[in-house]
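Why do we care about 3D structure at all? Because function follows from shape, and shape follows, mostly, from sequence. That is the central idea of this module. The next example makes it concrete: a single protein chain, its amino acid sequence, and then its structure expressed as tokens.
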Amino acid sequence: TMSILSETKGTMKVQFEMNDDYKYACKITIDEGYPTTLSIHDWGKSSYIQTITSGTNMPNELSTYLTNQAQQFVRLLQDGMPEKEGRCYIVHQTNTDGGVPMITVDGHQVPKYDGSNQQLSLLPLIRYLIDTIPSLLDHICPKCQKSAFPSDSQTLKSLYINKSKKKKIQQQQCPIQSYCGCWYHYGCLQQVLLEPPFGDTCSNDDDGCGGRQVGHKIFFSDDDHDN
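And the structure:
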């Protein structure tokens, strides 16, 4: 469920509650120039979203990830990307280095959207949050066919405790979003990517992503993933 915690001039604080336990709260700030796009100086004036930690009981890593996705969605709208395209693009680009969509003009690569046709972002942002946050607990890991998220927030938090002696075991159960948009357990996605038969498409092709490419940048960087 979604509730409005407070609403004042230029700001709105909303909170989502899931399964009578999980909570995610955020503050949306509207630029004073929104939605004016009459001059180049007003391009990009839109809404800004921040996590409210006091109203969120998810691990900071997860709540920050969700907030960054929402803010990136707003930026795409600011650049001129239509809402439907932006929602699809953000899922498949947030954990990659895909950058912004490019097109070729006179032999040169230029951004497909340059900000000159900014889309309204406040209502699309609210719709995005309503469709994204409450459904988190509905995600099923395509590999093991079990819920990608624990049923309670305390168990989820325990998976992110760095000082635990059982860290490696716990890390395997951490939910992680693949390139395809589906949520896997860390260990399940690792197995799909790094063990034979080295699958490169998601098995969730019926009611999920439609069999898109799986992956996450964490498995292809130079960092030690077990730390």
